[in-house]
UniProtKB/TrEMBL annotation:
Domain Alanine dehydrogenase/pyridine nucleotide transhydrogenase N-terminal: 4-143
GO biological process, one term: NADPH regeneration
Annotated Pfam families: AlaDh_PNT_C, AlaDh_PNT_N
Source species, domain of life: Bacteria
Function: The transhydrogenation between NADH and NADP is coupled to respiration and ATP hydrolysis and functions as a proton pump across the membrane.
EC number per UniProt: 7.1.1.1
GO CC terms in record: plasma membrane
Segments crossing the lipid bilayer: none
Gene Ontology MF terms: NADP binding; proton-translocating NAD(P)+ transhydrogenase activity
Assigned keywords, A-Z: NAD, NADP, Nucleotide-binding, Translocase
Protein name: proton-translocating NAD(P)(+) transhydrogenase
Encoding gene per record: pntA
């Protein structure tokens, strides 16, 4: 059975879905692995390293995909008119496609029509058994770290307090907005750099987690926020009144901050605006806002997704997207292991083929299409 690994062609994508380490493991599982030439270059994995691991190098996507039963991707394959190569049309009917496909109902219908068995890993339930396949966590962790490193790089003063013969440089005030996986890693990183760290979130559990990492909690709490978490562990969309109260608390705090890292997300929606233009205007020149929620529109009203820009009052707003991809080697290594864990968990050793039980919670969570039909409840066409 052939497994194909493609070069990621979407703009700004630096990661790859398999590394030489995971290729070796797939071969050990009985698979034949084809890797498109250059697939790992942007993340530091050479063609020679893949070949040494046992992969066959394929000169182009068509060669890699010919006869493939399993296709590994980071992002959704390109469709007609999306780029120089129509990857979707090259995927054989019946192939199992695994990636972070970010599909909506129309996207899922396209996979179904092409007979592609699509699994979208960002939809995996956040349960203990799925932890080692949790692509959102592995990537968010790195994004949170990188955000603080880039924030510190853009900040013209130091992060730690430095007492020198020439005088004292004060510690930076760092404020982390959203204390999920990325935010907690950002808190830990900012603390390690020596910043004075505070953080906010709306989920009640987050307050204790913030404090346990040595940061102070800043936030607004009321009856609504006591129920701000969904059964899946995500933050709920809250009322306009709640957001207004939260903004009041944040506004006075943010004016004193040097580096603000925004990580707040509400599943399936545009990221909430937590830093208004007026708040940015209240910040000191030289302050930095790092918005890693930019892929979902951003938490700062002034964020320009994909760009760094400096406001009229001298605040730098880093709105880059794909923050995990800014650490491509680590992000690819973790992502590739997430996919390997998924496939090896649902693997029939005798048949040397995937076995995806329809009643398994993880399989149910990630499966978009099966046998030419959309099966994911959130993406089925309206009855
Ligand atoms: P996320 O990326 O969806 O959101 C990031 C953070 O933003 C969350 O903490 C959320 O509460 C916060 N947020 C949303 N609106 C906000 C607002 N208005 N102000 C401030 N903060 C706001 O979250 P995530 O990092 O993917 O984590 C989601 C949940 O899943 C968490 O509860 C996490 O502990 C849990 N989780 C569980 C597992 C597991 O295996 N059990 C694994 C990973 C994550």
């Amino acid at each position: 059975m052939k497994l194909a690994v493609l070069t990621e062609r979407r703009n700004g994508e630096t990661r790859v879905a398999a590394t030489p380490e995971t290729v070796k493991k797939y071969i050990g599982m009985g698979l034949e692995v084809a890797v498109e030439t250059g697939a790992g270059v942007a993340s530091g994995f050479t063609d020679a390293a893949y070949a040494e691991a046992g992969a066959t190098m394929a000169a182009d996507a068509a060669t890699a995909l010919a006869g493939a039963a399993i296709v590994l991707k980071v992002r959704a394959p390109l469709g007609t008119g999306e780029g120089a190569v129509d990857e979707l049309s090259l995927i054989p009917r019946g192939a199992l496609l695994i990636g972070t496909l970010g599909a909506d109902a129309a996207g899922a219908a396209t996979y179904a029509n092409l007979g592609i068995e699509a699994c979208s890993m960002e939809l995996a339930p956040r349960i203990t058994r799925a932890q080692s396949m949790d692509v959102l966590s592995s990537q968010a962790n790195l994004a949170g770290y990188r955000a603080v490193i880039e924030g510190a790089g853009a900040y013209d003063k130091g992060f730690p307090m430095m007492m020198t013969a020439a005088g004292t440089v004060p510690a930076a005030n760092a404020f982390i907005m959203g204390a999920g996986v990325a935010g907690l890693q950002a808190i830990a990183t900012a603390r390690r750099l020596g910043g004075r760290v505070s953080a906010t979130d709306v989920r009640p559990a987050a307050k204790e987690e913030i404090k346990s990492l040595g940061a102070s909690f800043v936030g607004y709490e009321d009856e609504e926020s006591k129920a701000a978490q969904t059964a899946g562990g995500y933050a709920k969309q809250l009322s306009a009144e709640f957001y207004a109260k939260q903004a009041e608390v944040v506004a006075t705090h943010i004016a004193k901050q040097d580096v603000v890292v925004c990580t707040a997300l509400v599943q399936g929606r545009r990221a909430p605006i937590l830093v208004t233009a007026a708040m940015v205007a209240s910040m000191k020149p030289g302050s930095v806002i790092v918005d890693i929620a930019s892929d979902a529109g951003g938490n700062c009203a002034l964020t320009k997704p994909g760009e760094l820009f400096v406001t009229d009052n001298g605040v730098k707003v880093l709105g880059y997207t794909n923050w995990a991809g800014r650490l491509p080697a680590a992000a690819s290594a973790l992502y590739a292991r997430n996919l390997l864990t998924f496939l090896s968990t649902f693997w029939d050793k005798e048949a040397k083929a995937p076995k995806l039980p329809e009643d398994d919670d993880i399989v149910k969570g990630v499966t978009l299409t099966r046998g030419g039909a959309v099966v994911h409840p959130a993406m089925k066409p309206a009855a």
